[in-house]
């Protein structure tokens, strides 16, 4: 009687929430009352029978006093009372304890190596952007002087908070079963209160408990009702992606930078993701005509049939829509082959679909978050200093002017490149004839001397390395050709050695071959990170007293603390023998280190970190 009156009741949201909490608490207590003794029984069942025990003693081998390692130390002592080392061995049924006498040798105190951070070796910058929102571990966990409370505000949560709790899944499953059978609450009702600690339905971060419940084993808790009348079968795995999503997602794995066009390129993919396919102009109703009709059903011959009502299934239309979204300028003759339909029908259907396809609205550049600048090495003010290149290549209709109205006269579009006062890059989608593109230099190698080595080269003057695709006369494309303005892209570094610094800074970097004034030494390589990550990593860098940060432009820094090359060991000096210069190398900003005087082999290299580095 009582059960049926409960089933008839309707619960308000608050009441519902309290009910869920009460049931959850009860299930929780029941589960843990069962779980502890059950676990103990399970563990005890694994115990082996008490075994026989044998003792033994081994005589140690005579100590080799002429040992090569020991003789390297002038003073060492050997104590006369050896201790014993105990080995306990567990063969099949018995255990054997063996005692081995050991000697203690006292060695003189070692000089510790100068402190430095290990890093993964890189030959190219890699784009990291921002570190994840979860903190993977507590830095300096055993050091009370590190301000952990302040540091953790840079993260949203701790990595280990995110792991699914298998016990909690059991408790919640039983809770929803009881709520459903005893109190007649639907799964949607339960979920809508947001009271349960696990989400039942799929969310962005999780497939939901109902789906996960089908993927795991359950403990033998007698109270757990799995074959209940919960409508679990309705909750399958998350829906598979359609063709359009699959194609555009895999597109993102390819580097759009025309220098690489690599899959999984760590330098560019995150920074300049492959843009979604470009839709053809909207009001262009005229089909590109082929030279000859593709057959008797070609749209070029059967134009009068355009308005004829055709019977296309929704599935067939959707397939054509996807193809058009991916490559909208394919002529009907080719589409007909893909769709297995007569060409004139495809033409009609294409026109209909093109009216419907939504065009993405181009948005303004998002402004980035900036904060108090932590110390990082600075590029010296330089007349060749370039404004930062836009984060994305431009892709818009019309010429690369700063502002103009769209053809419909409604929204204001702009060209990122013109807006940021930078030249269009190779991977911009404007035509190669765009007036905003860099034209390259026309230096010649007339007297068989090095070309592009002085400021008479426009590329060099503009802080750009010669572009092999554009600078044709200096032959930058030919790796063996003496264009003197392509060192970074060719990787023509000087040999260097990292060892104990003579400047009192720990480790330092030394030249291993002579360099002349103006010579390229190497590239400063590391992870490209944004300001919020610069800040969160700075807490740690400041605490250890060593930073490997180099400001590239206002939004991006090169950090070689975790990964980089030997340039990270260059120390600061007011009278530095090297200088850093940012170069635009085939559309990408990279930091070159150049000799600013003649440097002999074996000399320690130095760089002026700039005033801001020591500000704080
Ligand atoms: Zn790339
Ligand atoms: Zn543009
Ligand atoms: Zn552009
Ligand atoms: Zn352009
Ligand atoms: Zn040149
Ligand atoms: Zn050039
Ligand atoms: Zn050149």
Q: What would your notes on this structure say?
A:
With 616 residues, the chain is α/β, with parallel strands linked by helices. Among the domains are: 2-39 and 165-234, no CATH class; 53-60 and 68-106, no CATH class; 303-356; 390-485, SET domain (Beta-clip-like, Beta Complex); 490-614, Beta Complex (Beta-clip-like). The protein is built from 15 helices and 22 strands. It has a four-stranded mixed sheet with strand order 7-15-17-16. Strands 1-4-3 form a three-stranded mixed sheet, with no helix packed on it. It has a three-stranded antiparallel sheet with strand order 14-21-20. It is flat and about 90 Å long. 24% of the residues are buried. The model is unreliable at 1-8, 361-373 and 379-388 (pLDDT under 50). Bound molecules: zinc ion (7 copies). Residues 255, 257, 260, 262, 265, 267-268 line the site of one zinc ion.
Layout of secondary structure:
Elements (H helix, E strand, L loop, with lengths): L1 H7 L4 H32 L8 E5 L10 H4 L5 E2 L4 E7 L5 E8 L2 E2 L13 E2 L4 E4 L4 E2 L12 H5 L4 E2 L7 H18 L3 H7 L15 H4 L30 H9 L62 H13 L5 H8 L3 H14 L46 E3 L6 E3 L1 H4 L38 H4 L25 H4 L5 E5 L6 E5 L8 E5 L2 E4 H14 L4 E3 L4 E4 L3 E2 L6 E2 L5 E8 L2 E8 L10 E2 L9
Parallel strand pairs: 1-4, 6-18, 7-15, 8-9, 19-22
Antiparallel strand pairs: 2-5, 3-4, 10-11, 12-13, 14-21, 15-17, 16-17, 20-21
Helix pairs in contact: 2-5, 8-9, 9-11, 10-11
The structure holds zinc ion (7 copies).
The site of one zinc ion has 9 residues, from helix 12.
């Amino acid at each position: 009687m009582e059960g049926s009156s409960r089933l008839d009741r309707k619960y308000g949201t608050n009441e519902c929430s309290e009910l869920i909490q009460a049931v959850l608490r009860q299930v929780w207590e029941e589960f843990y009352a069962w779980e502890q003794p059950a676990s103990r029984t399970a563990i005890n069942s694994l115990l082996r029978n008490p075994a026989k025990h044998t003792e033994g003693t081994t005589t140690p081998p005579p100590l080799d006093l002429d040992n090569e390692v020991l003789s390297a130390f002038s003073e060492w002592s050997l104590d006369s009372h050896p201790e014993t080392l105990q080995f306990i061995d567990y063969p099949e049924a018995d255990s054997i304890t063996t005692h081995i006498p050991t000697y203690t040798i006292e060695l003189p105190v070692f000089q510790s190596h100068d402190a430095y951070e290990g890093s993964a070796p890189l030959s190219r910058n890699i784009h990291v952007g921002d570190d994840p929102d979860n903190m993977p571990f507590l830095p300096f966990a055993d050091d009370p002087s590190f301000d952990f409370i302040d540091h953790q505000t840079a993260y949203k949560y701790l990595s280990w908070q995110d792991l699914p709790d298998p016990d909690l899944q059991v408790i919640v499953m039983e809770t929803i079963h009881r709520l459903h059978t005893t109190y007649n609450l639907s799964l949607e009702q339960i979920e809508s209160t947001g009271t349960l600690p696990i989400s039942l339905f799929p969310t962005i971060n999780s497939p939901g408990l109902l789906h996960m419940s089908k993927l795991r084993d359950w403990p033998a808790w007698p109270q757990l009702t799995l074959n209940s009348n919960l409508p679990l079968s309705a909750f399958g795995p998350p829906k598979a992606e359609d063709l359009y999503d699959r194609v555009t997602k895999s597109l993102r794995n390819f580097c759009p930078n025309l220098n690489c066009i690599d899959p999984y390129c760590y330098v560019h993919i995150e920074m300049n993701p492959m843009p979604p396919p470009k839709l053809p102009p909207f009001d262009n109703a005229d089909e590109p005509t082929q030279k000859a009709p593709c057959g008797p059903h070609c749209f070029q011959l059967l134009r009068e049939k355009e308005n004829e009502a055709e019977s296309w299934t929704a599935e067939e239309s959707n397939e054509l829509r996807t193809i058009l979204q991916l490559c909208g300028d394919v002529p009907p003759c080719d589409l007909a082959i893909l769709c297995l339909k007569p060409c004139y029908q495809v033409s009609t259907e294409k026109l209909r679909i093109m009216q419907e396809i939504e065009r993405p609205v181009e948005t303004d550049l998002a402004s980035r978050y900036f904060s108090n600048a932590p110390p990082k090495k600075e590029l010296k003010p330089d007349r060749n200093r370039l404004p930062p290149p836009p984060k994305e290549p431009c892709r818009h209709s019309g010429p690369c002017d700063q502002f103009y109205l769209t053809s419909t006269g409604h929204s204001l579009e702009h060209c990122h490149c013109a807006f940021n006062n930078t030249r269009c890059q190779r991977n911009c989608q404007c035509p190669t004839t765009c007036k905003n593109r860099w034209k390259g230099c026309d230096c010649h190698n007339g007297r068989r001397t090095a070309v592009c080595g002085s400021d008479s080269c426009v590329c060099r003057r503009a802080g750009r390395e010669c572009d092999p695709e554009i600078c044709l006369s200096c032959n930058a494309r030919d790796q063996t050709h003496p264009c003197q303005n392509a060192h970074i892209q060719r990787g023509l570094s000087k040999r260097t050695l990292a060892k104990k610094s003579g400047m009192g800074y720990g480790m330092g970097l030394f030249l291993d071959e002579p360099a002349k004034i103006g010579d390229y030494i190497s590239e400063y390589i590391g992870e490209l990170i944004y300001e919020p990550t610069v800040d969160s990593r700075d807490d740690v860098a400041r605490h250890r007293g060593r930073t490997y940060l180099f400001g590239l432009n206002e939004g991006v820094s090169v950090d070689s603390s975790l990964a980089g090359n030997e340039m990270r060991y260059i120390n600061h000096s007011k009278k530095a023998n090297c200088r850093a210069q940012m170069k635009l190398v085939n559309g990408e900003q990279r930091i070159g280190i150049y000799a600013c005087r003649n440097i002999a082999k074996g000399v320690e290299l130095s760089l002026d970190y700039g005033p801001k580095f020591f500000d704080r």
